[in-house]
Amino acid sequence: MTVHGCTNASIHHNQFIDNTDVDLVIGNSPTNCQVYSNTITHVSTYGVGGLGVAFNGTAAGLNMYGNSISANQNKLGMGLFAGHHPWVESDMLASLGNITSNYVSGAAVLGVIDGVSSGNFSGNSAGNWWQGARGHNGCNGPFYFMVNTNEMNTSSVQPGYQPWRFHTSGCIPQ
After folding, report:
1. Given this model, what pLDDT does residue 165 score?
2. What is the end-to-end Cα distance of the chain in Å, rounded?
């Protein structure tokens, strides 16, 4: 589900099961947008991404928290993502907003931040870490949380991230 224009709204307590593209992505400068307590599961069908924020503009008004993303081996490329660079390298988000306290397990890449300048990405946790090697655009994990440190203010990113770029051409270490 792609949500454009999430203003003074909340998306919560939904279940997304075995979708083939991105399960839930928020875009176009959300304002006072709360995304919480959603469950994303990939058991038998491969999906590109679980939950994220992308496109141009800013997502400073986004609060994404308390969501759960899980997948069986080789069933999810990216769990949690911010930024549109895995698809369009020219798009930039000024802020990813607040992406906190989400749980990710089983994706080839647990989390990606690429094409974002600022925001708060913290307190997100990993279960079985990552599984499989079926990523997106040849970024075939397993990877923990990947951050393009050339763009993102890393002081607002939780510890343990890996400095990588994740562009349409694949993963590139920094």
Report:
1. 87
2. 32
